[in-house]
Design brief:
Elements lengths: L1 E8 L5 H10 L1 H6 L3 E9 L13 E8 L2 H10 L1 H9 L2 E14 L19 E9 L4 H16 L4 E10 L3 E8 L2 H10 L1 H12 L3 E16 L8 H4 L4 H5 L4
Helix pairs in contact: 3-4, 5-7
């Protein structure tokens, strides 16, 4: 199983094509039998849970039965042709699931992955549907945790993504090691306090937490590859796919 997160940026004048893509791209994704799960996503401005939408930046999360299936999609699909025509930049992180707990729209999109032996750079997806009567609680607490993450040891980059404003939110972050993730998650008093509140106050009607092994990145985001440092010592990433 291969998981791809593609971030797409549009110029201001082409933002209408970004909104149009959110409607049109559902059709070829639904018809693609090699893609077992997909989500068209909006984006926050600051790389974390964010109430401020960035209408120039959008996302697509896809799950594939093989790397070859993703490569065909990336090189030849209607959607990739759309990106080449209307987008100013695309940036993709290709991953393999390590662990996954919880549901997304009632499904386990990354299967029952449970690889605890991996040691290396790790990507983390935290996703939740927030109860409407807990929105105030969530948004009044999330900012301090987001700022803490951005300054944590081992943090490399992150993307705030979501299916709907305010209440269907996710963060995809990349770290140098699993130890760095655990230090942020379990040693920070602020983060531990927020985790406790999510349980005690029942903030979420559905949630999912998954970890991945990043295996490739290609394209640029605002002129650079945020994960270049991960792959600079190996040609594995660049050899996986040839940009169309």
């Amino acid at each position: 199983m291969f998981v791809a997160l593609t971030i797409i940026r549009y110029s201001k004048i082409k933002i209408p094509f970004a909104f149009l893509a959110m409607a049109i791209h559902r059709i070829p994704l639904t018809l693609n039998k090699k893609c077992s799960f997909w989500k068209l996503l909006g984006s926050g401005k600051n790389g974390t849970f964010d109430q401020q939408a960035d209408f120039q930046q959008w996302g697509l999360l896809t799950v594939w039965d093989s790397e070859e299936s993703f490569n065909i999609f990336y090189k030849r699909s209607f959607i990739s042709a759309w990106w080449r025509t209307f987008a100013t930049e695309t940036y993709t992180i290709l991953c393999m699931p390590l662990t996954s707990h919880g549901l997304w729209d009632g499904r386990e999109p990354f299967g029952k992955a449970n690889n605890s032996a991996y040691n290396g750079p790790v990507a983390v997806l935290t996703r939740a549907t927030i109860r409407f009567n807990r929105l105030k609680n969530f948004w009044s607490n999330v900012d301090k945790v987001a700022k803490l993450m951005l300054n944590s040891k081992g943090y490399i980059t992150s993307f705030g993504i979501g299916e709907a404003p305010f209440y269907r939110q996710a963060t995809f972050s990349v770290w140098k090691s699993l130890d760095d993730v655990k230090a942020f998650a379990y040693q920070s008093e602020e983060h531990k306090e927020v985790i406790k509140k999510t349980r005690d106050e029942n903030w979420y009607s559905e949630e999912l937490f998954a970890r991945f092994k990043p295996i490739a990145s290609f394209g640029t985001l605002k002129g650079s590859d945020p994960l270049e440092q991960i792959f600079k010592c190996t040609d594995e990433s660049s050899s996986r796919i040839t940009t169309p």
